[in-house]
Amino acid sequence: MLGRLLGAITGDAGQVEPKDLGPRFLEALLPGEQVLAAFRTVRDGFALTDWRIILLDRQGVTGSKTEVVSIPYKAIYRFSVEAGGTADLDEELKVWERGGAEPTAFSFRRGTGAAMAAQRVLAERVRGP
Fold first, then answer.
1. Hey, what long-range contacts does 115-120 have (CB within 8 A, 24 or more apart)?
2. What pTM, to 2 d.p., does this model score?
3. What is the pLDDT of residues 10-24, one digit of tens each?
């Protein structure tokens, strides 16, 4: 329970059902696109589908304005997972895209296994068939 509360305060992602990302996320899916894993913070979220990462960046005070960003797996050239240390409350997955200077970072609650679950799906998709 304490981990969930701290995760809500710090914004660390936890694994959720795809429908929990909301209607804007569901609208962004293509017909037949399969969600392999979904993660949500207090306001934002992201999902790994069978061909891309979909990011939801809710903006403004109410969060009603939402930017939906797609990162196709073929654009990813590097990624890493930083596991939490003894005093750390989170773990981090970083993804570098071709043409992008800074990585996109995703923060997860430590000890939930969510960071490694996301890394596993990402590795399988980047590797290809």
1. 115/81, 115/83, 115/91, 116/81, 117/15, 117/37, 118/37, 118/39, 118/48, 118/93, 119/79, 119/81, 119/93
2. 0.78
3. 445 678 888 888 888
